[in-house]
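pasting for ref
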Amino acid sequence: MADDTILATQGLTKEFKGFVAVKDVDLSVRRGTIHALIGPNGAGKTTCFNLLTHFLTPTRGRIFFNGREITGSRPAAIARMGLVRSFQISAVFPHLSVLENVRIALQRKRGHSFDFWLSERLLRALDAKARELIEAVGLAGFEDTLATELAYGRKRALEIATTLALEPEMMLLDEPTAGMTHEDVDRIAALIKRVAMDRTVLMVEHNLSVVSTLSDHITVLARGEVLAQGDYATVSKNPAVVEAYLGAGHA
């Protein structure tokens, strides 16, 4: 691995009873960048994410994070190393407030699963950091709002806040703008750009406008294999990429 590579895979492959979902994927993510994983439906993007965080075990291939092989590591151990998948590891409790949700995430970072039972005084000690994270994701003024009462885009922002509470060195975002209004998409895109200033982001994203705006580097998957890699200008003009999207009913 090059010194500026934070995450890499070699020959990453996943087979399901004869069906090859991901095949010989060599991925290299540079430290401090926003790297997008795109492709038509069924391309293997989410399977690839599940392999990186070991929610699925590779059939073969190797995964490296910060120069250390993590193939076979447990998901919780990978998260402790600083590689955190948002919207899967982060827990948002619908009937707790925004502040309470972020505070619980901060407790998890400390390694105490049952801090629910700590005194109010000890819990309040986490409030300053929690409020800082809440402000960072644009939720200032919503501290006392129940998570279930938040608009969809703001709920996603809360999920990012709970992920940031774990102090990840690298964040994996799985379709962060899926199902959002145009206004919410713009808000979350700006948030991703902001949180990426001091960490690495790898994201699966269908919205090509978001990809073109945010991404430093793009890997295109099709039928489980790497079809193209490069910046947006390069991959968007690649005839094989155009064919893959048009062939799958995408413009």
